[in-house]
Write a structure and sequence with these properties.
The complex is a heterotrimer of chains A (323), B (301) and C (349).
Chain A lengths: L3 E12 L2 E13 L4 E5 L6 H8 L7 E9 L2 E2 L5 H7 L4 E4 L13 H12 L7 H11 L16 H13 L5 E5 L7 H15 L5 E6 L2 H7 L2 E6 L2 E7 H6 L4 H9 L7 H4 L39 E3 L3 E3 L2 H6 L3
Parallel strand pairs in A: 3-8, 3-9, 6-7, 7-8
Antiparallel strand pairs in A: 1-2, 1-4, 4-5, 9-10, 10-12, 11-12
Chain B lengths: L1 H27 L2 H23 L33 H37 L1 H16 L2 H11 L4 H11 L2 H15 L2 H8 L4 H37 L10 H10 L8 H29 L1 H5 L2
Chain C lengths: L23 H31 L5 H5 L7 H11 L5 H13 L13 H36 L4 H15 L2 H13 L22 H39 L2 H8 L4 H23 L1 H14 L5 H10 L3 H29 L1 H4 L1
The chains are: A alpha/beta (323), B mainly alpha (301), C mainly alpha (349).
């Protein structure tokens, strides 16, 4: 069965003068054991997608569409069932891990918390399980007694990963798992994620602004822009030969790992992503697009299929390959 | 040289007017703040007009118009006190002392706090350290105990009360002003003013003080509320001016005459309500002002 | 964050020893610093107290013998007894020496050592202030947390408004109001509670006494809670609000915790940190309240002793009580500094 199915997901936030759409009709699916990367600039809606999967968005957010985890409809779930699916069915590795860990509780207790909550292991075996989880992510057992501030950034990220694995979920969402780490440590954390997730039938959704990180780790790649997926396909193909001008700009810049500038805008691409409350008419990438034409202001393109199991949201793709 | 200077001043004035308009509009959105302002205007008006409709002999202990402890009736809507004076007249008259002491004590306290805060924030180093240590020391000490002690050792008078409240309640203002001064001085144009040869006094008076003013105004309003409650407390403890009629003093008379234990509510409820209402109004205005000047704060209220 | 541990990702050396513990030296330095600050503050309080009460106008001996037949010789003897014939600096040195020996002097009014009076009266004050503060803190923390968690709801608005209102009400008036309503027995209600004091005369037996004291305590404690809890509520509310957007709360929710557990296990422990500091910093207000509430309810504690000393004026008594009140606040703050590292692991290392 498909592990994760997202169909026409929309998220909008209530703001002072109405609603601002953050995610506008995103669809994708993920099979057990596969890894999907979602790339895009800050504010393109990729983290909103991650939080929406487990309904973790603030109350001001309105969610539409369908999300199915293991065939179960998440948006229609009762609260009790939803809490059971959280972490035991799907867990999240959050970004940075400085503020994602509770500063006044020992990391061992924080790893043990979901195990106890979901009854993954008998109470007596929990300390042993926490110890073995720490060893799996390359930390000594005694680290269970440390507080987050006593650990380095990389160590905290390891703790986050151990925590995500605690209940042996089938799906792991990694939201910027290596952001704010230095280059060497980024590589180590990525290898760790690869080792732990690969070959266990765990599906992973990895979200990053960093195309290089995703290209290394994921099987398939989706590029988001202004709340939509604008390009989707096998990771290597998307990086090597993007069909959407934005995907092309992203991979042409091919940001170096750890380059902070690449987080904002791909090199060679002028301007900023549009304000969700005030999107351009027609194609939302048009104002920044190097190859925009007049007709781009008339059509708001959807994902058109491209040979090779790919798709891109650009009318030029449709022109080349009439569907 | 003069023409551009004049136009620059005009620009500054226009900008200030615009800011004022924005603040006014933002204040008007706060219903509690408007209520507080209305209640205060009423209280001030009543206090100012009191001598017009209350003759002096109505307040004298010897020539009181009524009998002792009369319950409310048509002649005395709030009954009479232990000397036969109308409680309504007393409460109206009491507003004069309470508001005067409240405003003046808050002014003393805010002036002290602002001077100390700006100096500590501006100079830094040892001076700032020493000043802040002293501030912290005062901040921790029980304010009311200090004020009681001060009021007790000085002559009984309204001035004493003002001084006692003023010199014990400045530390919180000093802390806030210092923090604000530090943030103002970190702005680039202060650097420019210094580079252009602006002395300490120039920077403090022309640049820091105007920017600290919003915080100081809000803080003053909040402090008036505290000063009014503190004044009534000191008067209640018998530390007020013996001849003056104040809300705390009325309550002291009520207690000493045994009106409390015999349940004469009309004697003790009105002055207390007056204190609470006026203090609450100042607090509401102060919070509304804080919200106007610091939008981040407004979000959470 | 910690530069000492940049080895981050490389598997740390498999030393079986427990993690780095706070170094004893650093802890000692922290303790020493706090103790020194407290000692300096206390000394400053003592000096202030001495000079503050020397600017008292008038002659204390004349004041305390007022209305009695006293000869000039007797007045001289009293002056000598209290050391008032000595020069000021001599008095100051004596005062310091005596304070260091916990000798608080002899009360003019009661002709007994102040230390003795304080020892008699301190119990009731601790009982009243302690009970009141504990209830107020518990109430304030719980209501403040709720108000923040349901921010903007009717419950939040009501509880914040009530807190603001009580904040504006003078404590003594609230006490008087309670007496008129619930103790005087003249209104609509019978006198449910005593109008003042701590024990009814003639009460014997431990249990009877305890019940009687509790009965006497209801109104003073209620007054104290009413005026004190509001500030705890506002502090806790804003501390919890500061934590509300924090990432670790999203983590906790993602783990599948129920909302109340997210609040209890994660948000509250973090929000308590700033609250504890502010609660201790505001203790001075509690002492101010104690003086008034004890005065209003004739509670036989240090506060009413202070009030009676003010009237005479009983110099040694008022001076000693001033030092005790201020000193208690300083010591409480020292305690807060010492307790804080237990709550916040970040301060410990």
């Amino acid at each position: 069965m498909t592990l994760l199915e997202v169909e026409d997901l929309t998220v909008s936030y209530r703001i002072a003068g109405g609603e601002a759409p953050a995610v506008r009709g995103v669809s994708f699916s993920l099979e057990p054991g596969s890894k999907l990367g979602v790339a895009g600039e800050s504010g393109c809606g990729k983290s909103t997608v991650a939080l929406a999967l487990l309904r973790l968005l603030p109350k001001t957010a309105r969610i539409g569409g369908t999300i199915r985890v293991d065939g179960e409809d998440v948006l229609g779930m009762r609260w009790g069932r939803l809490r059971a699916v959280r972490w035991a069915g799907a867990s999240i590795v959050f970004q940075g891990a400085m503020h994602s860990l509770n500063a006044v509780r020992r990391v061992g207790d924080q790893i043990a918390e979901p195990i106890l909550l979901h009854g993954t292991a008998p109470r007596a075996e929990v300390p042993e399980r926490v110890g073995s989880l720490l060893e799996r992510v390359g930390l000594p057992r005694w680290r269970a007694r440390s507080y987050p501030h006593e650990l380095s950034g990389g160590q905290r990220q390891r703790v986050m990963i151990a925590m995500a694995l605690a209940c042996e979920p089938k799906l792991i969402v990694a939201d910027e798992p290596t952001t704010a780490l230095d280059v060497m440590i980024q590589a180590q954390i990525l290898r760790l994620i690869d080792d732990l997730v690969g070959g266990q039938g765990i599906g992973m959704l990895m979200i990053s602004h960093d195309l290089a990180v995703l290209a290394d780790t994921c099987d398939r790649l989706a590029v988001m822009y202004a709340g939509r997926i604008v390009e989707e396909g096998p990771a290597a193909a998307v990086v090597a030969d993007a069909r959407h001008p934005y995907g092309a700009a992203l991979s042409a810049a091919f940001p170096r790992i750890g380059d902070p500038a690449s987080r904002r805008a791909p090199r060679g691409l002028p301007g900023d992503p549009p304000d969700p409350a005030d999107l351009p008419v027609g194609c939302s990438f048009r104002p920044r697009c190097p190859v925009a034409e007049e007709r781009c202001a008339e059509v708001d393109p959807v994902l058109y299929p491209v040979p090779g199991g790919r798709s891109a949201a650009c009318i030029k793709v449709r022109a080349e390959e009439p569907a | 040289m003069t023409a551009p200077a004049a136009s620059r001043r005009a620009v500054v004035r226009a900008r200030r007017r615009a800011a004022l308009r924005k603040y006014t509009r933002s204040y008007a959105e706060n219903r509690a703040g408007l209520f507080g302002l209305a209640a205060l205007a009423l209280a001030v008006l009543v206090a100012l007009a009191a001598p017009l409709f209350i003759p002096a002999e109505a307040l004298s202990v010897t020539g009181a118009p009524g009998e002792r402890f009369e319950p409310p009736d048509a002649e005395f809507p709030l009954g009479t006190d232990t000397y036969g004076r109308s409680v309504l007249d007393l409460v109206v008259w009491g507003a004069r002392i309470s508001l005067t002491v409240g405003f003046l004590a808050a002014a003393v306290s805010v002036a002290l706090g602002t001077v100390i805060g700006v100096i500590a924030g501006h100079f830094g180093g040892l001076a700032s350290n020493v000043l802040m240590r002293i501030t912290d020391w005062f901040l921790v000490l029980p304010t009311l105990v200090m004020a009681i002690a001060l009021a007790a050792v000085m002559e009984r008078s309204t001035l004493t009360i003002i001084i006692a409240i003023g010199v014990t309640s400045w530390p919180s203002t000093a802390r806030i002003v210092r923090a604000q001064t530090l943030s103002v001085e970190a702005r680039p144009y202060i650097e420019r003013a210094r580079a252009l040869g602006g002395g300490h006094l120039h920077v403090m008076l022309r640049h820091v003080l105007p920017n600290v003013m919003p915080v100081v105004i809000a803080q003053t309003t909040l402090l008036v509320a505290e000063a009014i409650v503190m004044e009534s407390t000191l008067s209640f403890l018998g530390l007020g001016s013996p001849g003056a009629i104040s809300w705390g003093g009325i309550l002291q008379d009520a207690r000493n005459s045994g009106a409390i234990s015999s349940g004469m509510w009309w004697y003790m409820v009105p002055p207390g309500l007056a204190i609470a209402l006026v203090a609450l109004s100042f607090t509401l205005c102060g919070r509304a002002l804080e919200g106007v000047f610091n939008p981040r704060l407004r979000e959470r209220r | 964050m910690t530069d000492t541990q940049t080895s981050g990702a490389a598997p740390p050396a498999p030393d079986a020893a427990p993690g780095p513990r706070p170094r004893a030296g650093r802890v000692l330095r922290y303790l020493g610093g706090r103790l020194l600050t407290a000692a300096v503050s206390l000394a400053a309080v003592m000096v202030t107290s001495f000079f503050l009460f020397r600017i008292l106008p008038g002659d204390p001996v004349a004041a305390m013998t007022e209305g009695r037949e006293v000869s000039v010789e007797q007045m001289e003897a009293l002056r000598r007894e209290f050391g008032l014939d000595q020069p000021l600096w001599q008095q100051f040195l004596d005062y310091c020496a005596r304070m260091l020996r916990f000798d608080l002097g002899v009360s003019y009014e009661f002709h007994r050592p102040v230390a003795e009076l304080v020892a008699e009266r301190i119990g009731p004050t601790v009982l009243l202030a302690g009970t009141g503060t504990l209830i107020a803190a518990a109430l304030g923390l719980v209501l403040g947390t709720r108000a923040a968690w349901r921010r903007g709801s009717a419950g939040d608005r009501i509880s914040s408004s009530v807190a603001l209102l009580l904040w504006s009400v003078p404590s003594f008036w609230l006490g008087l109001l309670l007496i008129v309503l619930l103790a005087s027995g003249t209104g609509w209600l019978p006198g449910l509670f005593p109008t003042g004091g701590m024990v009814s005369p003639g009460t014997t037996g431990a249990l009877d006494t305890a019940v009687d004291v509790a009965h006497h305590m209801v109104l003073p404690v209620a007054t104290m809670v009413a005026v004190v809890y509001a500030q705890y509520l506002m502090i806790m509310r804003s501390s919890v609000l500061d934590e509300m957007g924090a990432d670790y709360l999203t983590t906790a929710r993602a783990k599948g915790l129920r909302d109340d557990l997210v609040l209890r296990r994660h948000a509250v422990p973090n929000a308590l940190l700033p609250t504890v500091t502010l609660i201790f910093l505001n203790l001075g207000r509690v002492f101010g309240g104690v003086i008034l509430i004890e005065t209003v309810f004739a509670w036989p504690g240090l506060g009413s002793l202070f009030y009676s000393g003010l009237k005479v004026p009983d110099l040694p008594l008022v001076q000693a009580l001033f030092v005790i009140f201020a000193g208690a606040v300083i010591i409480m703050n020292l305690l807060a500094d010492l307790v804080y590292p237990l709550l916040d692991p970040r301060v410990r290392t």
